[in-house]
Every structure is written in structure tokens, then in C-alpha cells.
Amino acid sequence: MADPSENRRLFEVAGQDPEFRPSPYCWRTRMALAHKRMAFEPVPWRAVEKRRIARSGGGTVPVLVDGARWVRDSWQIAIYLDQTYPSNPLFAGVAGLSHARFLNSWADSFLHPLVFRAVIGEQYPLLSDLDKPAYLERTLKKFGHSVEEMGRDPEIAVSEVSRALEPASSALSLAPFLGGETPDYCDYVIFGTFQWARVASRQTFWEQDSILDRWFSNLLDGFEGRARAQPARSHWP
Prior knowledge:
Elements: E1 8-13, H1 24-35, E2 41-45, E3 63-66, E4 69-72, H2 74-84, H3 93-123, H4 132-143, H5 147-150, H6 154-164, H7 166-172, H8 185-200, H9 211-225
Parallel strand pairs: 1-2
Antiparallel strand pairs: 1-3, 3-4
């Protein structure tokens, strides 16, 4: 039975519609909490609302509020959850922690810029109007290109993402999940990336009924279908 969520909240990026939740990092944390069988109150948050999460020590989400404890950053939240609530571990010992850390860094530094180029054209219109100016500025600072320039050739980016996923497909040919017979945080890191893509874009990165498609569908349907309950991009205007 899930534990009460009265004292547990999760601040998450939301779009102009508060039900639009595209952040890959927040989805990592959502899946980690589901894995732990922990209930929580989802709290929509926009980037201009940094004062609301000031107690976390930073200005980005996800931020988990667990009673009196504020924890920011999806990786730090995962570590906190395993240290504080050891049941249903997210990491299979030191080796599992190391594997997950590698995937976490690889996704952030290599995979996400590719996916960003593939989905930003469809995602940007759904962002909060309050956040759009800062989003434009941050994109230009981070990539040296405007949002429009970054999203100009989504088909090329989709092809690059598909090639980048070949090692994951190979690994999943040996077991249903990156964590083996059951998912662990390695799965949630990569799942978060493609849940972002599913929510923000109509682009597809693998063939229907492929190894990757089955893996992703199993995670969408896991934990009573919590992830699939988030509307896909086709739901939004």
C-alpha cells in the first residue's frame, strides 16, 4: 500500500496548461517515487517562480519536499530516497549506482541536446508564457543558437537519436529492462528522456514493436499506468 502523501510534495515543470509536464528530470523522480511505492502531491511550477523553491538551495526542479526535508535535483533525490527508504532499492549496490551514474551523465550531456533539437519546435508553444523569454535566453546561452534554429531540422536530430540508442537496444535484447528482469534507476533515467519526447512531440525514435518500443511501453504501463496517464503531445493543441 502506498504511504500517505500528506507531507510529500514534488515541484515539477509545468507549461501554460498546468497539466503539461514535459521535464525529463521530473519524470526520473516520478518513476523513482513510483518504484518506491511512495505517494506524493505533484506541484506545478514555472521557472519564474524560484522563490517558491528557495528552501531547496537552488532555482531548478525537481524539488522533493519530504516532511521537513527539501531535496533538489533528480540524481540527489534518487540517492536520498535509497538512503532514507531502503526498501525497493533503485540501485543494485555499488555497481548499479555506478552504471546509473554513467547513464545519468550520458543522457544529460549527449542524449538530451539531440532530443531537444528533435522536439523543441513542438514543445515551445506549450511552455508557460511567463517562462518563454527566459527559455529563449537560456537556449541561446547554452547552445549558441535560438530556439527556432535548434528546431529547424528535427528529422536529422531524430536520426541521430535513433543511432545513439543502438547500444540500449543491444542491452535490452538480453533482458526486458536495463536493470535486468525488473526496472531500476537506469531505466528511469532513459525513460525520462523519452517521456519528455512523448509529451512534447509527435516524433518517434524507434519502430513499432521493436525492443525499445516494448521496453518503453512496459514502463508506461508500469505502476498502474501512471506514466501513460500523462497526455501525449497529440492531446495538446
